[in-house]
Design brief:
By secondary structure, this protein is mainly α. The chain is about 85% helix and about 0% strand. It is built from 7 helices and no strands. Helix 2 packs antiparallel against helix 3 and helix 6 runs antiparallel to helix 7. The chain starts with a helix and ends with a helix.
Amino acid sequence: MKDILFMLADLLMIAGGLYCGWKFLRDYGNWLLGLEWIIVGSSGVNFLVWALRGGDQGNFQYDLAFFLDAFSRSVGITLIAVVGLMQVTHKYKPRPAVDVGLFALAIVAGLYLQQFSGHELHVGPATFYVVVNLLTTAFLLYFIGRVWSIGAKGLAVWTALATAAGTAIAVTYDFFPIPGDDANRTIFYTAALATWGAQLFVFFFAYRALHDHNEQASLGEVTAARGHHA
């Protein structure tokens, strides 16, 4: 049963990453969120295939899994996510050079932090992951407030719950192993994958709601301006 739940949680993250990532690219031209979501979904595919093949820690996929994990936890679902969400909170669309620079930074961070892979605790990197998550959470609280302010209160609550769950996972990840979990941390990774998958979907829906509200507000301003000059 634990293995089945693990697979289902991973499939949820894969679906959220690939589907919502494609929607970010196609419908909103948001390369930061689109590519990062797809990277997370691809990480889930790699993790699933690695697990189905027996979970050999000497396999290249094992190293790739830790690189992608470090990529997203350090810069991807932190700085890249924040800048991407600013497209609907601040109408900020970064130049292509900024997009490239952020992903280059994430690659460098992933390659450096990959060396700390494994089950043993590395206090420095572990603390860094928690700090950047908390900084991201501070922005997400503002983002949630914006979603609430447009009347999408139910969606704002879901976004808050997903954010809180993500922060709990970030804190638990390295510092608080779940009692009774197995050597592969199946219980923890099931909870983590399910949480990350839910976040990918919920943040997309919240982004879409703010985008649609902004579009309607802009249309209303244009209509009012035309009426004023008529």
